[in-house]
Amino acid sequence: MTRKPSEAEQRAILARLDRFSRFTDNSIGLPFTRFKIGVEPLIGLVPGIGDVIGLLMSGYVLIEAQRAGASKEVKRRMLRNIGIDFVGGLVPVVGDAFDAVYKANTRNTRLLRNYLNEQLAVEPPPRSFPWKILIGLSVLFAAIIGGLLLVL
What we know:
two-stranded antiparallel sheet, mainly alpha
C-alpha cells in the first residue's frame, strides 16, 4: 500500500509541473503576438521521433500525478489529453500547429492542481459540542447526588 503524499509534497509536485509545463508549452514568446509556444511543438518538427519524444515528455506529468495521489479518473483524463496531443501531432504540418495550441502538459497540470485543491479543501466539518450528552449526564449526576443526599 502506498502512503498518501503530504500537502507539502503535493505542492512541490505542482511547482515542478508548473515549471515543466511552462518549458514544454509556453516558454517561447512569438514576436508581435501574445501567443507562446514551448519546446514540445519544436521537438515535434523532427520527423518520426519528434512526436514520440513529446509523448514521452507528457508521460512525466502522468508519473507525477501518480506520485501526488491523483484519482483514476484524473489520470484517465490526462491519458486522453496525452493521446489527443500525440495523435493530433502526427498529422503532417497541421499537427505541429496543433501541438502548439493544444498544450496537453498545461491541461494536465491544471487537472492535477484542481484535483489536489479539491482534496485539500475537503475537510470533515468540525464536530459540534455534544450539548445533549452534557445535559443528559448533568441530569443523571444530579439525580444520583440528590438520591444520595436523601439517603444520608
